[in-house]
Amino acid sequence: MTTMMLSLTGCIGWSVSTVGPTGAVEGAAGNSSLSDAGAEQIRRAGSASFDWSSGRLLLQDVGLTGAGDFANGVSASDPAHPIAVTIHAPSGTIEVPSDRILPYVAEGSEEIDELWLTVSASDDEQFLSFVREYASTAGIESEGLTEWVAAYAADPASTCTSLGYNTPVGTATGLDLWLEMSCTWDQDPRRYVAVHITPPQL
Question: Which residue stretches of 71-197 are H helix?
Fold first, then answer.
């Protein structure tokens, strides 16, 4: 199997599959599949659901064979229509309209070790609305985040850069969830919120 190695914050050395259209189209009950065929099904349907209510999301639950099998990333087929992602957490539900679903599996792991959902906002108001909504969902209470939101409202371009701003981890859902905000300010400004979700770190 051919893999590509990604060097990303919190995910250095993890792999994503780049193989052909194989694998289960559906995952176990309550789950979408992240096999090659399942990823294509998510793209066509424009929605995905994952049952992380036990605190673990096993590879076999998302249409994969087990340790050593790699989950596929999925991009929305139309940027104007993001993928409606629903995650059933141990405490509540996380709903994210995501442009990209990026699952990460540590080598040898039998579960999804991180799900990274990217959300793009069309304007400053929507961007801050996303930040507040997901921070509230996660139970993130941070003076630094409050100050960052106020600074962005006053001067977006100076506050949000391509380097990103990371929040502390929130645990209100029973999963670990944190946000990463980044922006580019060329002729076509782009504002992103990355929602990072991992199993609870006990």
Answer: 124-138, 143-154, 156-159
